[in-house]
Design brief:
This protein has 693 residues and is mainly alpha-helical. 74% of the residues lie in helices and 1% in strands. It contains 38 helices and two strands. Strand 1 and strand 2 form a beta hairpin. Helix 16 packs across helix 18. It is elongated, with a radius of gyration of 32 Å.
Length: 693
Amino acid sequence: VGLSGTAARRTGGKCRGYGRSAALRRGSVIYRTAARGGAAFCTGPAQCSDDRGDCRRLDGIPLAIELAAARATVLGVEEVARHLDDRFRILTGGRRTALPRHQTLRATFDWSYELLTEPERVILRRLAIFAGAFSLGAAGAVAASADLAESQVLDGLFSLVAKSLVAAEAEDVPRRYRLLDTTRAYALEKLYESGEREWLARRHAEYYRALFERAETEREVRPADWLAEHRGQIDDLRAALRWAFSPSGDASIGVRLAGTAVPLWLDMSLLTECQAWMEAALGVMHDAPRDPRLEMILQTALGFSLMYTRGAVPDTGAAWKRALELAGQLDDVEYSLRILRGLWAYCMNTRDYRRALALAGQFRDLAAKQPNPVDQPIGDRMIGFVLHFQGEQAGARQHLEQMLAHYNVPVPRSDTYRFQFDQRIMAQITLARVIWLQGYTDQAMHLAIKSAGEARAVDHALTLCQALGQAAGPIALEIGELRSAERWAAELVEHSARHSLAVWQARGTCWRGATRIRLGDFAGGVQEIRTALDYLRNIKSGLGYPEFLGLLAEGMGMLRMRGAMSVIDEALTLSTKSKEQWYLPELLRQKGELLLLANGADVAGAEDHSRRSLALAHQQGALFWQLRVATSLARLLRDQSRPADATALLQPVYARFTEGFETAELKAAKALLDSLQQLGVSMARAAPCADQA
């Protein structure tokens, strides 16, 4: 339809025999070559990727690429790229030997547009209201009018497909259609000129409001199909919301649409967007008739999204408080359960473990009163999680194993939407941490890796963050599998950044820094942890904070940096004050090590902290911490020429292990025991000689 035949032959862009990806690859080569005066030029993969990005924005249309290349010879590739949003102004000045309709992109589209029948022109410009792919039903419902029947819209759509002005998405079943970006830009201009844009935008927004009003019910029945179907409508959802909340829009439509679209935002883990739209909707609700249920839905979604985008800030707590108040007024048990779980997570992040434990019990009791108490085991998971962080590993394990034994995964799946995580995987993650601390390091690592694999399989962003950042990465780091820990930390940082999960990105950066410290890059690791902790401190995201402080102090101590002692003291104070006891044995051991590194090594202070650590680890049933501190203390005793005391301390702890003998921790303990035995023999042999002398 009016495309340059020469350009088509050069790029293969729209010619038969070339797919879209081939067109983009060939287009980028022609684009770069022509732009550099015919000499092939590319500085590297990133620049070639930019070329393909420009060609993709031009839909691989050969004429558009040719015109862009011609402009690039004068303006440069980067300048052309910056102005492609105004493509009809900048893409002018083709070859002077070309037909007039081929000398500007607008002329080409004008020529093609004039060849259409009047109904086809109307349909084309009305279809431009769709920002993404659309179904036949959507096209008919939105583009039809009193003077244009739905059947005419469909006939016109098929004609436009045949003329290459509308693309059919071949892989979609049922078939979906879309306007290429360049065609849509042209058709939108015609839509504005027609004066139809405003009423069409309203109809478009109302169509998607009605569509998403059925969303939650449909999601419960067929979640996998529902997500696959509605994922492709995200661009039109955004466009409808932007219009609704604009000065010329209708905020009442926007408020309802924001509420009905919550399942899509949460299922896709688009929490930053969810937060923005919930705030926009709540911001205008005071101008509309009060709808307590709708406000409850919006406040609940806002609480969830704020938790993982901005952390445990006051706004997060306010959203949960208001949501719970509304759920109580409405006697809505379903939302009460959702909100209790969210408020529990908020308390965990603010290190209010006492309240978190009470909320977990409240959740379990409420779930047990339901006719079908399928959610009751989730309460056990929540209780087990709190007990684990409080250092009560035996009790935590009991609740977690009870949850896994009695929890039936919903079919169809609903837990990731209702409670933001895959609940079975979450129980496995915490159980992996517990059994690691109890000394079952092989089983713990196996369960952590299994949980990460399952989280990838369910394709749920937040669950994968938990699997990587709570289990796989930390356990690998502590048992000495540093390259694995490094790989998982990098995956967590990349994954959380891709999904705009700033809290998890900061935690991933902490784990990456800790791994660098353990690998010997003390300065680099310290800098990464410091940067991430500054962010976590500002958003008051407290879960794991004392642990990161301990790792930071460890790196600073290796660098003999001032302030290491104050950092470890801050961590100890936080752990003691909040009752986050699980990492306290390691913090005491780390302080003991710092006392030895200080000028005028405080041997007595180091031994005192180590013995306190050992007693606390024994009390918690944390055999792994017992081994680590026993190894540290045994080295200290050895250096004081007390090999017998060192062996008596370390040997019983080491003997309690039944697995994990290939981990760095147990290898180090075994090597120390062997050296202590040899030292004891040497000292025994030397003793008679000393008596004779």
